[in-house]
């Protein structure tokens, strides 16, 4: 049954953005546009990523299915072209579907480009069956390594800037450990380009047809190199430097340590080598990148308003995962489940959504697809594993799920882990390992006291293990659909 609701949909994603890196959670950060979006809608304060790395989470955002089900279980693994996506569901409802920015459904690069070069992310070969890119009619892709269409645009705009950028990404002389302030003009930045392409899609669109627009920013992913003007905004800001306990390294499982020794993860499980001064500079630049993104979101919002349809736009703002940012002595991302890495920003705004509301109801990446479809009057498709949060968003229910799951899989490294998050507790289990983690987030929000081996917490751990077991059984792939009893 087709939906009668022709609401436009705008999905905004960032890369590696913490839930607390927004003005409504941290008044040091300047995000007036996102703050206004939060006032117009509902903040899901306990939203969690499908995986603490990019590809699995992005595939879950767009399919509503878990990483072990859609198959893109880690970076470097392609999402199967036969997976049905949000774009596919919306195309069935006559939506025009457009994606701008980072998709990362395919490996960004190969060790040997002579073999299967078409699999590189930016090649964007369309599906043979419908000539779309994972259900997107139109796509303008640029990835972390600043590949793709953006570079073509930059070369046309300013060949000299493009030449310098391709040479060293405007890396400053005092750059250190992925941190510098860029001399690149803001109006030629990759983030600006993503806003430009999004604005173009809106302004060229026939408003009689519903539009789905996915604006997917690459930042604030490292390197932390905002245009100088945005770094300067925070040069006098009072930055809180994350605290790291001296014995934290000893408490980590040995199989997770030194993952950076062969480049598998930047930072790996090793403590970062940064001084407080350098870490402060890094955090300030991280905030500057977010403010720059916020400004570009504002430009795109202006285009919706100029088109006269913003009131009819259902907006979702989120990120693929967070950033450790020095928490527990760690940087970036990887096989960790700390709140800074797994809790993500989630703001939902639009027709029928409660305004100015903040809820602690648990939400997962896989809930985005069924929530959006429910909001336009469609039932959850068979095979979509997430739950619609619409009843929470319109205040009909306090919550729809009692737990959230985050997974990390690196079969090639012998690391497989699941994290179960309830409204109070967090359990982390590493397959085949005696080590695990258990935190009482009410009493220990900074996750300093691991109760996994605490005798007093034994019954609690067993109860959470049982809950996790049920989730693992329930979360198996429901496809293919059963068609008959015989």
Q: What name does the CATH topology carry? A: Alkaline Phosphatase, subunit A
* CATH C-level name: Alpha Beta
Number of helices: 13
Radius of gyration: 22 Å
Topology, number of strands: 13
Keywords: Hydrolase, Metal-binding
GO molecular function: metal ion binding; sulfuric ester hydrolase activity
Family: Belongs to the sulfatase family.
Protein name: Sulfatase N-terminal domain-containing protein
How are the elements arranged and paired?
Layout lengths: L7 E7 L17 H9 L1 E7 L5 H10 L3 H4 L15 H6 L4 E6 L36 E4 L7 H9 L1 H10 L21 H14 L7 E6 L11 H5 L43 H31 L6 E7 L19 H4 E2 L1 E4 L7 E8 L3 H8 L14 H4 L10 E7 L4 E7 L3 E6 L5 E5 L17 H17 L12
Parallel strand pairs: 1-5, 1-6, 2-9, 3-4, 3-5
Antiparallel strand pairs: 2-7, 2-8, 6-8, 10-11, 11-12, 12-13
Could you characterize the architecture of this molecule?
It comes from Paenibacillus antarcticus. One of its GO terms (molecular function) is metal ion binding. This is Sulfatase N-terminal domain-containing protein. InterPro entries: Alkaline_phosphatase_core_sf, Sulfatase_CS, Sulfatase_N. Keywords: Hydrolase, Metal-binding. With 486 residues, the protein is α/β, with parallel strands linked by helices. It has one domain (8-401): Alkaline Phosphatase, subunit A (3-Layer(aba) Sandwich), CATH 3.40.720.10. Helix content is 27%, strand content 16%. It has 13 helices and 13 strands. The strands form two sheets. Strands 1, 2, 3, 4, 5, 6, 7, 8 and 9 form a nine-stranded mixed β-sheet that branches. Strands 10-11-12-13 form a four-stranded antiparallel β-sheet, with helices on one face. A hairpin with a 4-residue loop joins strand 10 and strand 11 (415-421). Helix 5 packs across helix 6 (159-168) and helix 7 packs parallel to helix 9 (276-306). The longest helix has 31 residues, at 276-306. It is globular and about 65 Å long. The relative contact order is 0.18. The model is unreliable at 110-124 (pLDDT under 50).
């Amino acid at each position: 049954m087709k939906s009668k609701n022709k609401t436009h949909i705008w999905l905004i994603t960032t890369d590696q953005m913490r839930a607390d890196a927004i003005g409504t959670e941290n008044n040091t950060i300047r995000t007036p546009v996102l703050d206004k979006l939060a006032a117009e809608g509902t903040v899901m304060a306990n939203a969690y990523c499908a995986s603490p790395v990019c590809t699995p989470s992005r595939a879950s955002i767009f399919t509503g299915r878990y990483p072990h089900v859609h198959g893109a279980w880690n970076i470097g693994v392609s999402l199967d072209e036969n997976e049905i996506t949000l774009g596919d569901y919306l195309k069935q409802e006559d939506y025009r579907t457009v994606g701008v920015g980072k998709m990362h459904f395919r490996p960004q690069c190969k060790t040997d480009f002579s073999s299967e070069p078409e699999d590189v992310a930016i090649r964007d070969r369309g599906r043979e069956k419908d000539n779309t890119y994972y259900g997107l009619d139109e796509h303008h892709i640029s990835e972390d390594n600043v590949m793709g269409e953006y570079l073509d645009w930059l070369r046309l705009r300013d060949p000299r800037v493009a030449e310098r950028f391709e040479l060293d990404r405007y890396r400053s002389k005092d750059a250190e450990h992925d941190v510098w302030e860029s001399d690149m003009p803001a109006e030629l930045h990759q983030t600006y380009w993503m806003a430009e392409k999004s604005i173009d899609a809106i302004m060229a669109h026939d408003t009689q047809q519903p539009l789905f627009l996915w604006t997917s920013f690459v930042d604030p992913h490292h390197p932390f190199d905002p245009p100088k003007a945005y770094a300067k905004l925070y040069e006098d800001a009072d930055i809180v430097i994350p605290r790291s306990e001296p014995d934290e390294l000893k408490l980590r499982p040995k199989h997770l340590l030194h993952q950076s020794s062969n480049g598998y993860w930047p930072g790996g499980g090793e403590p970062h080598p940064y001084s407080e001064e350098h870490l402060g500079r890094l955090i300030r630049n991280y905030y500057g990148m977010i403010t720059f993104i916020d400004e570009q979101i504002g430009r795109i919002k202006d285009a919706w308003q100029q088109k006269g349809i913003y009131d009819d736009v259902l907006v979702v703002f989120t990120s693929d995962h967070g950033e450790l940012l020095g928490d527990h002595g760690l940087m970036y991302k990887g096989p960790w489940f700390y709140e800074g890495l797994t809790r993500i920003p989630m703001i939902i705004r639009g027709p029928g959504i409660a305004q100015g509301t903040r809820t602690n109801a648990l939400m997962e990446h896989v809930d985005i697809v069924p929530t959006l479809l429910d909001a336009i009057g469609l039932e959850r498709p068979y095979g979509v594993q997430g739950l619609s949060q619409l009843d929470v968003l319109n205040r009909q229910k306090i919550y729809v799920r009692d737990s959230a799951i985050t997974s990390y899989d690196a079969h090639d490294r012998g690391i497989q882990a699941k994290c179960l998050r309830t409204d109070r507790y967090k359990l982390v289990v590493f397959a085949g390992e005696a080590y695990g983690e258990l935190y009482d987030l009410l009493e220990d929000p900074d996750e300093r006291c691991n109760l996994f081996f605490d005798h007093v917490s034994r019954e609690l751990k067993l109860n959470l293990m049982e809950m996790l077991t049920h989730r693992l059984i329930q979360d198996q792939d429901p496809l293919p659909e059963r068609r008959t009893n015989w």
